[in-house]
Amino acid sequence: MLKSFAVRNFQAFHEQVQLSLALNNHAPEDNRSFKSPGGSKLTKALAVIGPNASGKTTLIKSLAFLDWFIRQSFQSKIDAPIPLAAHFGAAHETTEFQIDFEMDGKDWRYRLVASEARVYSESLYCKVTRAYSYVFARDWNPTNSSYDIKQHQFGFSQKEAERVRENASLLSTAAQYQVPLAVKICSMHTFTNMNVLGRHHIDDMQLFGASALYAENEHLRSAMSRLLKGWDLGLSDIRIEQQTITRENGDKEDIYIPFGIHTVNGTEHSIMLKQESSGTQAAFLLLFRLLPSLASGGLAVIDELEADLHPHMLVPILDLFFSPETNPHNSQIIFTCHSIEVLSLLHKAQVVLVEKNNNCQSHAWRLDDVKGIRADDNLYAKYMGGSYGAIPQL
User: Fold this and answer.
1) 1-189+298-394 architecture in CATH?
2) Where are any strands of DSSP class E within the chain?
3) Which of 23, 167, 319, 351 is deepest in the core (most CB within 10 A)?
């Protein structure tokens, strides 16, 4: 369960920005938040809003990057650069990240300082009593061009820890050696529609990949089909067909192709999903990311949640997270959005505004950090009127 995240000197963000998903006692008592096992009140949804090119995607992309780095950087090539781009005004400075999360009823803190060239500092802390104590700390020592590493009940061989590559996470590496805590943390998957370059766009590979997941998990396919049928897309079902193709080298491979089913006067008509509307394809792929998160209690990080969808669809999508029936494990979603109607669905502590200044430096703040905003304010009307900033200057 994510509690907060911070980033400094990452692409559009030069100065540090820190955002919390924790709510105070003034937040409404409803299904839009939940009480964690450790006693924290956390939001189920956090919307990131602002003009085009303000830095919204970059802000949440920091979480997508950390998810990749923590879990998969071990698989990078030995000499591959870390896919990090600092702000162009501080291109030679390091980038810093921090996430606070709750796991097994305890508070944890992960910190990373890195550049494209190497990791300079990586550490994991656990809050045992009132203070955080390190589980491991790894710091670059320029004198001997190696890392100083200390551990406390982490369970990773010191010899192997000292051999962790400069472009890989110690957590990712320790998981390969079946260190229990590392394996557990690396299993906390973030479901996202982004990579280091930004949002994935609809293509055959996306559709085939989603179809493979649905084909292997009938309960997810059934939930997806039921939701799409209820979203006024003209569908009576979504079916996945397995086909075998032959690659140029002669190898055979099974792929899964989705078909939209339309029933008219009792007769079924099957259409390949890639021939359906962009909105239908977008909804299919969006649920591919959201449903596994809802099923496991994970984190979904979605850029342009409403892309290719009607703004009215924001209600049923967010209701998937707000309803205890569809979100029994208190999964969380952080998303960017251009449909300002979303402000009518959230309270002020669930909204982050992003704005870029004349020096091309982005800033982000949670709406409840702005003085004078009342809990019963019409957030939509005031934002559209320019009261909060973070609107295009046209």
Assistant:
1) 3-Layer(aba) Sandwich (3.40)
2) 2-8, 17-20, 33-35, 41-43, 45-49, 95-103, 106-114, 119-127, 132-141, 146-151, 190-192, 194-195, 198-199, 237-246, 252-264, 267-272, 299-302, 332-336, 351-356, 362-366
3) 351
